[in-house]
Amino acid sequence: MRICVGGLWFPTKTEAKNVIRRILRSLVGQDVRPGSEHFKLISGIWERSALRRPEVSHFVVIEKLSGMGIRAVIGDNSYVDFSVRESISGHSVSHWTKLTSAFRLAIRPQIREFKAGMDGRCAICDCSGWMEADHYKISFRDLMRQFLAGRDAPNQFEYCAEGYRFTVMDSNFAAQWLDFHKEHCR
Asked: In percent, how much of the chain has pLDDT > 90?
């Protein structure tokens, strides 16, 4: 099945992924702006993404643990990282992924508050330096599952620059999650 990405035609999705991967490998860490050689191609990948938004100023090709990704830069202060593989394959973002994103986005203020209270020191070993806030002795996924037990999860989410978030209609659900997380996170 032929596929067109950014004006380039490929005989199959696999061939498109392989060719695009080779091109992106040479662009890791670089800004791809309007007028540059590969802007049309990367814009075409972005157009196929479930996360796409119209107000992108440029792209940055990034290296991830799982390979390469593309960061769509929106204005000067926000960005959306998206998957090349998902954009080309056409798979939409699953309900579980949207729900996880909404859960994570909801607790960001708690994480900021926690980090600010630690004064740059690790809560476990008291070392200093770059810190990553994470859960101790329980995974985030397990916290989510405990919270969801016996509850109906929302089915609709709003998309924003940081990912998916709960809708206004689900503000009570979100508030319950915040209380649960604050009580059970370690």
From this structure: 25
